[in-house]
């Protein structure tokens, strides 16, 4: 009988694992298919010509895809990589290492896979490229599914996580707006790392599972760091979460320090393979990890159960922070770095510690993604029932964690195995980690709306885990001291009933909307931009250099291959200065000033965009021309109102009048409803 019972239990566990894995993989595949179908319906991609497809890549996305095209056109992969690392055909008068400066490792990977798999005769390059990105989004969803499953013990939580993620897609991912963006390549690897870390932190994990999770954390951490230039900042937030987890002795110290070693290894390897990227050496992640390891050496005997050791815990946190800040200051003093200085300046202005008239800084401050989140964001999360359940789960977990910390301060040891009837969900290290992690990410999301794409997916995961976890309900019932109903039975019932009710309500309300999105034919067509790109390819000399807004220059580079004077990149001081200087075509400057600026970058053609010149923005003072007037000192304050004043008219308006001195410097060669193209004269008359 015992052997039959054991066999039954093994079959049950295997069936649960098999169907859970099947559901996770199916969810990821269905989401990837959903994205592909939605993209096709939105852009009519299959019925477009190549030029029309490429125009759908806007701004920095256009630049990333243009380098992918260049890699495929190169005679060999080695030659293609060399041309990218010594690129002098993109920006005039500037040779750049595009792989390092733009983190083009995703494009290198995609081009290798495309050529090595023999896909040239099977699928077009653009479909292969976006197919990889959509596939990664499927992995992203699968990783969130697995994380919630590992935490709750039921794959019902994974299904609910995926449902909330898709329903709140506007706030969980930017895939709709910018397919090639770095975070769309990187965040799936981070989700895999978080899933592996969740399993690694669990108590009583068997050796094989622990080793697998450890190796997966290693691989995904390094890959994540290579895919996104700002990845080390997100890993820093994660490291802070682990530091707090370890400081309150809520996790196995050895495991946490193994993760620190993974960070250190990834930083060193990333530094070497990213062409000695100094940003990684001065990153807060390296300083914190080094401080933690040094503090451990200084406090080897701190965790003995004495009053002094518990008192030293507070000193330990102070010691780590002091060493980390000091070390980061010293590294920045001795290691030359420029890559992220503009971020520090932005933070100063954002927090009100400084003011500036700098065009680039004020332009960034005006971007929607860098504003505080709107009320609509919270309303959408509430309508899908995500926010109320997240707050409920967070409060219960926080109170339980607070209880555990209080017990630890009083000298009570943690239980080796937490049983359901104990009602102590706050003693599970993986739960505490996620609580701290989502709180830290939430604080960032409350400051910058763009950070919601990092926070909301883990809100979906934590909320789904909570409502599906019998331990969470049992923790609540322990506090309420239920006697009428057996608390364990009620917890088991609610952990099944509540997510089922939520699932049916979400299905009834949101499934028809999702199906409507997939069946409704949308149309994205920009004939003016198509005409402009066609004219450039047919009429402009091959050696011509174009000047205009950085966003348009990215599209011109992709669609025509012609050299441009600026790009929509914000991690290089020289490019930031170029962008500001060329944006002067929308300011109140003289024709001679604009001519000198453009010829200093060897530009041959100037493209004026009517949408910028005649921009009517929702926020006065955030239009490009307003920001330029502020930066140039052309704003006069009278009786509380601001007026733009200069002895010159706005250049983009005046040049259209075709009178002297503008016709002396510029000759109009093409125009349509949206764009005016002017040839920059090489022989001019300086007569007014």
Automatic annotation (TrEMBL):
User: What's a single GO CC term here?
Assistant: nuclear inner membrane
- What name goes with this protein? Dpy-19 like 4
How the protein sits in the membrane?
A: Multi-pass membrane protein
Q: Which organism is it from?
A: Malurus cyaneus samueli
Q: Does the keyword Ribonucleoprotein apply?
A: no
Q: Name the residues that span the membrane.
A: 14-34, 149-167, 233-251, 271-294, 315-335, 387-410, 454-476, 488-507
Q: What is the first-listed, main subcellular location in coarse terms?
A: membrane
Where does the record say this protein resides?
Membrane
User: Which keywords appear in this protein's UniProt record, sorted alphabetically?
Assistant: Glycosyltransferase, Membrane, Transferase, Transmembrane, Transmembrane helix
One GO molecular-function annotation for this sequence?
mannosyltransferase activity
Classification via InterPro entries: Dpy-19/Dpy-19-like
Family the entry assigns: Belongs to the dpy-19 family.
Name any one Pfam family assigned in the record.
Dpy19
